[in-house]
Batch of 2 targets.
Target 1
Amino acid sequence: MAAGPDPSALLDRVLALREDVERQVRTAFPGWPLAGADPEVRASAANLVRYLALRRHDLHDLQQDLILLGLSSLGRAEARVGPQLDAVGSALAALARRVDGPAPPTAESLRAGDGLIERRARGVFGPPPPDRRVRVLATLPSNAAHDPDVGRRLVAAGADAVRINTAHDTPDDWAAMASHVRAAAADLGRHVAVEVDLAGPKMRLAGGVPEARQQLGDAFWLVPPGSRAGSPDALPRVEVTLPAILEQVQLGQEVWFDDGKIGGHVVELATARADGAPVGTAVRVVVEHVGRKGQRLRLEKGVNFPETEIDLPVPTAEDLAALPHALGIADAIGFSFVQRPAEIDALHDAMAAMLAGPPPALREGPPPALVLKVETRLAVRALPSLIVHALRRGPTAVMIARGDLGVELGFERLAEVQEELLWLCEAAHVPVIWATQVLEAMAKRGVPTRAEVTDAAMGERAECVMLNKGPYAEEAVRSLADVLRRMHRHQNKKTPRLGALRAWASEG
């Protein structure tokens, strides 16, 4: 029979790993932007540095050997990297009968990270319901501004927070939506948070979309509003918002529409003209990815250039115009397409200036929390510094916006990257919103797919799950709340709870 792993040799590996992690804290951590940060933020940043250092190593063999010895592996160390390494090292030292292992960590140090995540989640969303840990965030449709029952039904179905998108409707509509929801929450004895999303530099289709479905090989121009491409061909001219993005596109780059339903490549750049004068750039697109039956281009749907590193001022002028209205009603502000730490400082500075302005005050109490919406490749790469920058200034959460991310990264990488984002946020002790296409078929058609239900159950690994709007949104909220309630017995983020199995209770 083969001998099991050698505890003494494993201890040497863990001690070397622990020293490397702490060396990163001593060398890299002082350079992080933490001036003025409170001790909890500094502790979270240090744990994040430890986690990034830990995951630079391939731990596969080490983890398998630890499991064979019956020890807790390092696979659930995100929120407590230092204490978890100490726990493993002290257990190995006891097995090897060595005295040079680390001291066992305290129970308090092992639980501190999880407790901090939950406290921060309460600061963003409020308390969770008594029978589940994960909150449900429901997107409000336009008619919620004029029909109070729309928000009331969502709250009654189990929504713990609602989302208002400033890319649509008007400031008066946003205020009415928030007022109706808060009134419903008060009547039902519930706390329901209001998240208001700033639109960010998101290009959308604004006009001129052809009625026919797009098929493979079809072509059309993307142009600034009110303009035509310089080319004399008869191809459709589809107008877009944020035409400045067209100035940054290059030949051969990918372009996707409506969260990846239509895809193609840029095959020509031309001068766009209005009344004979140049007004920007026109981009000719050839469709190369579309379903067998084709797909219509639809107004207000998004346009993504995943290979183009968009460089536009963020927050945008439109964001800053919407911000005072958002500050008056929001518990949290969704920062769309944030990519750089300086953009976080710019938004916080703008909020501070508006809140310090002349009477009447925009709000009572502290500023709203900030939700960093991770939607681009650059945001994924910059996420550690984005989180630390935001935490310095106030309550922070991260939204994993799977719609834009799937287009930006490629659908093949999405599952892998969303897992890594969950781990990173847990290491930084920040709550996560799991978003986009959760129970999408149910919200739109009233019946979920089997895959959707399984996907919804994965939401237990976040602190909040977002649902998009649809004619059956109320039913989708109720179903999601039920799925999360059931999963709460079995899972807490990455950790199985090992609740009793019920399906086979009468067997044996």
Target 2
Amino acid sequence: MEPRRTESRVAVLTAATAVARDTFVYRLQLDGPLPFSAGQFVNLAVPNATPRGERSYSVWSSPADPTVLELCVKLFAGGAASEYLRAAKVGDTMNVRGPFGVFTLRPDHDPVIFVATATGLAPFRSMLEVAVTTKDPRRFELYFGVRDEGDLFALDDLERYARVLPAFRYRVCLSRPSAAWTGYTGRVTHALAQDFPAPSEHFYLCGNGAMIEETRDLLKGRGLERKHIHVEKYY
């Protein structure tokens, strides 16, 4: 992929939608186009944040309209960016800069396995929106892990992809669900260990660092080449 030129844009917050416990999708209308590739991220300027005045977020929305960005963000009490976004109101202006990153889908027809925890789903949603638009025929599988039902989001999107993409399936993994949960119980790594005894696909991992390290060790231990493992670590 050719690198895109980094641009700065003034953005107006047009919506802040709660999608799960302490998790919001922020919709930003930009003052000009900011072309990006699905899987890339932007930096949001955060007043008084240290040690640097920006925070990075993968883009949740499709790159089809480069004048609009959607960011899916988990808010944490006391975090500079979290408190800034928690206080934000529709109509507020913000500053964004980007795009950054090379965590993008390879332009081939090899099967793809996405592994996400929490808001690590964001780049994969953007990629799948593109796949829907382009009618991408390759096999896509998604493993999405959160703690419990209160942290779940985007299930309507996943169901839509399952209807319109010819070879897409997903598994939701809850590590500490309620007694009422009837889906898979356990971490995403446990599900992958069951489903891929001899992996050969391309694996894209996004989310917390512990999940990424555990998954990478699992895949390498089962013989998968390092060039088939693509990583975007959030924390």
